[in-house]
Hints:
The protein is α/β, with parallel strands linked by helices. The chain has helices spanning 28-38, 56-59, 68-85, 88-99, 113-125, 170-182, 209-226; strands at residues 8-12, 16-20, 43-47, 106-111, 129-133, 156-162, 187-192. It starts with 7 loop residues before the first strand and ends in a 6-residue tail after the last helix.
Amino acid sequence: MPGGRADAYRTGAGPGVLLFMDAIGLRPQIESMADRIAGWGYSVLAPNLFWRDGTADDLMPKADLRVPENREAFFGSGVMDRVASITPDIARADAEMWLANLDDPFAATGYCFGGRLALRAGADFDLAAVGMFHTGGIVTDAPDSPHLVVPGLKAEVLAGHADHDHSNSPEQIAVFDAALTAAGVAHTTAVYPDAPHGYTMADTAMYQEAGAERHYEELRALLSRSMPSSSR
């Protein structure tokens, strides 16, 4: 990378899927998710988005985040400062490097704040498909709100919203849906019932099996429609 080296997890073969991790970071859970997606016939790259702050091993949680108090303590340790440091310009420059390590055509799937990065990458690089799961902050009052990139999308968008997510209200979801519709972007969005923010992450207290398995099913269908693999 310009200015240093970034670690990443690469698995599988076939059309490229860029996996944007959640705020907890690159760790065995993310690698397991990448392996499952790769098993559908894709090449998956899951980079350490926080490479400027340290390696994945440096930043990995040391406590069991399936314990609610440990998860809360981890998020109070400066994690969100790392999230905030990835500006749209940085995200674009990094994504260009990530995609250079994958095979065309490309799609992206993102979790938590990674969903916002997947959306931006979709618009910046004309990706075939974008998946977004338990993603907050999609609609804000800022001039660079993620939802404002929607008119630049060619990708089909799949958004699996978490129920009762304080970072993604029903009003924000409605604005996002309206933007997708107005721009003529093919999309499927839904609020997953009773699914908390972080529902896909089996190594945390927020995991919900029903939501996680639904996400895999719908993501696989999205990728199959957008860029069929040899193992379809």
